[in-house]
Specification:
By secondary structure, the protein is mainly beta. Helix content is 7%, strand content 42%. A hairpin with a 4-residue loop joins strand 17 and strand 18.
């Protein structure tokens, strides 16, 4: 029975991949030549840099052409830079621009005599349609089996109770690198993902989920990947739509998420079936199952993306997966009460929750290089360049280990009278956010200067945080 379930699951994976809408590469290059940095979303939606939307119509019989050119436009004789309402290419693909009608509703052009490429084209069948889009009656055939979201559907966006402030400053002055950023925060107790502008300490609104988020990671400054406690799905949230654009189903409960931006893939753990799954982030589909030993937790991805480390929660055994070596499993050894694993300069750094020490292991030989006494209750650890930052909850300190010499070089005191919990690196910067469960604050750590440069108030506890640039919304 289990073999049958797995067979059906992999049939589902392969079928899922075939549904992905792919705009031909030469067509993407043609559009990018006029509008650099255009987003060709995995579900087919084309978003120009100024947030203009085009919906592609896939032809029944695509035409192979060496060079893409525009065959016709509506209105006629327009160039791509004019952003016409409809564009027909010589490969039989067509693009329909999302426009507003006289009443402000989203729609597409409704030509009296629609060209065959438009009448017979088909919208991608897994596309997240802009909310409230109205398809003209004479173009209903382009819908197929696509679900058109009703205008009344607000997506995931929900209001949050506003705290009444009396003569209390609610704004925050962020450090320059965080200005105009948005914080997406999972609290650990609410199903809602809180959305907070970096200039404020209060949530502006929230994104509702069916389950309390377990793990949450950002991708490409445009998507959130979210697993939930008790859920069999990985939700892909489009931050531009503020809606679930894809629900990737598993046969068990997916838990931790690791993202490799360079390879455009995510690794999602499933301790129940001793597996780690690979998700293709270009198509948002499952592409591979890696079978492992034990029930994995506390996953760590090496900076070069060649290894994953995890702890077997049943045995306390640490394992490495050599991703560039046919997913070879390597037994590192057994360590008690592991709180975190880091990897730098071909060495593993392992902290214990109870023994307050750091073990340093040579990856090639599995030999113990050193054992260093560290701060009490080490709850998190982060590798950055040639340093390891160890967060100690009891003393509210960060200790820095130089991975060239394996000596402790700095002790950074948070001075918050709280209980620090995690270090979250902010992508594209040398900064990290330190969360706290006791105090209504977060700290901003400069990992180059090795100092806390900002302590800011916040009204919600941070279990997981993703920091992005402000994303233009397309469902206003």
């Amino acid at each position: 029975m289990r073999k049958l379930i797995l067979l059906l699951f992999f049939i589902f994976i392969s079928t899922n991949i075939s549904f992905a809408a792919k705009i031909p590469a030469n067509m993407q290059n043609y559009i990018n030549s006029t509008f650099p940095k255009t987003e060709f979303r995995f579900d087919g939606v084309i978003i120009l840099p100024d947030a203009t939307l085009y919906l592609p119509l896939f032809p029944a019989k695509p035409q192979e052409v060496d060079n893409i050119i525009i065959k016709s436009t509506i209105p006629a004789n327009k160039r791509l830079k004019d952003k016409p309402e409809a564009i027909i290419f010589n490969n039989n693909f067509a693009l329909l621009k999302v426009i507003n009608d006289a009443s402000g509703k989203k729609t597409v052009i409704s030509p009296v005599n629609a060209p065959d490429e438009i009448r017979n084209g088909l919208l991608p069948q897994d596309m997240l349609v802009p909310r409230g889009l109205i398809i003209p009656e004479n173009l209903k055939g382009i819908i197929g089996n696509l679900n058109i979201t009703l205008d009344e559907n607000p997506g995931l966006k929900v209001e949050v109770p506003q705290v009444k402030h009396t003569n209390v400053q609610t704004s925050v002055t962020p450090v320059p690198a965080l200005k105009n950023k948005t914080f997406y925060i999972a609290t650990g107790y609410s199903k809602n993902i809180q959305v907070i502008n970096s200039e404020s300490k209060s949530p502006a609104y929230a994104l509702s989920q069916k389950h309390v988020p377990n793990s949450m990671k950002g991708y490409n400054n445009k998507f959130l990947l979210v697993t939930g406690f008790g859920s069999n799905a990985l939700n892909v949230i489009s931050l531009a739509d503020e809606d679930v654009i894809k629900e990737i189903l598993f046969t068990t409960h997916p838990e931790e998420i690791l993202v490799d931006n360079a390879k455009k893939i995510a690794y999602v753990s499933s301790p129940e079936d001793s597996s780690i799954y690979i998700v293709n982030l270009e198509t948002m589909t499952l592409s591979k199952q890696i079978k492992i030993n034990g029930m994995c937790e506390r996953l760590t991805l090496s900076a070069d993306g060649t290894k994953i480390f995890y702890v077997d929660k049943k045995t306390n055994e640490i394992w490495a997966i050599e991703l560039d070596n046919n997913y070879l499993l390597k037994d590192i050894g057994k360590f008690p009460n592991v709180s975190k694993i880091a990897f730098s300069n071909n060495k593993l750094y392992i902290t214990s929750r109870t023994k307050n020490h750091l073990a340093i292991i040579d990856y090639d030989t599995n030999g113990l290089i050193a054992e260093i006494e560290i701060t009490a209750k080490p709850v998190d650890m982060l590798a950055f360049e040639n340093n390891i930052f160890i967060l100690g909850a009891e003393g509210n300190v960060i200790q820095v280990i130089d991975t060239k010499t394996d000596e402790m070089t700095d002790t950074i005191y948070l001075n918050t009278n709280g209980f620090a919990t995690n270090i979250y690196p902010i992508e594209g910067t040398n900064l990290a956010i330190i969360s706290d469960t006791r105090a209504s604050i977060y700290c901003v750590l400069d990992m180059i200067k090795k100092e806390v440069i900002k302590i800011s108030p916040i009204e919600v506890p941070i279990r997981t945080i993703v920091v992005t640039d402000k994303v233009p919304k397309i469902n206003k």
